[in-house]
Every structure is written in structure tokens, then in C-alpha cells.
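Comment on the following before class.
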Amino acid sequence: MATVSPIKDQLLIRRGTGKCLVGGDMKVIRMYDAGNETLVADYSARSGSSITSLTSDQVAGHYFIAGFGDGAVRAYDTRLDPRNPLVRAWKQHKNWIVNVHMQRGGIRELVTGSIAGEVRLFEYVPGPPHRK
């Protein structure tokens, strides 16, 4: 059994938008305006597990993906209500997610890796938010 290191805060800077996403051992993913150093929103992580990795859609800028300590990977849409921004969840991993990476450009592939050495590739096709 692999040893899991202590939770470290996760930080992702979205260069195209000037926004910064922060997660960790908390129930929300915080978005800050990096230029103004102000909190934009607290997005509900919709999980009881710690956030262990973050990635973002650099093209449209509306989506971000989080990996969790329980092996779940969740996709969020910033255009939705911050209390319920979840649009998709994958639960193929059974162990701590150490990295998530969303392919840049027009191809929407998501690569995830767990502490157990599992690597998974998902096709992620974002669309308009399905609820207001």
C-alpha cells in the first residue's frame, strides 16, 4: 500500500483570464482575480474528500477539473451557480489522484494519474451548461 503525503494546497493560474484557482483540504475551490488580489467565487467541490490536483480549460476558460483524495475526478463550469457548478464526475480511479491534465487546444482529452500508478485518458467534450 502506498503512503499518502500530507495535503498540500493546490494552485492553478489561468493565464488567459488572470484568474487563480485554489483548493486543498477544504470543501470549496476558490477563484481569485490575480490582478486585483480579490476573491471572485467559492465553488462547491461537491465532495467530502480533499482536492489533490487542478487543471483548467485554457481555450474557453469556463471549465476546470479537480482530482480528489478518494480517486474521483470532477468537472466544473464557472458559468453555473457556485453552489452547484458540477457538470461531470468520473470514478474510475480507486486511489488518490496525483495529477490531472486537460489537453490544450481543440482536442478535449483529460489525462489523470493516481498514487497507485494508474493513468487514465478521458474524452471530455464540454458543452453549454445544462442548468441555470
Remarks:
- The chain has one domain: 10-123.
- The longest strand covers residues 38-44.
- The two ends are 43 Å apart (CA to CA).
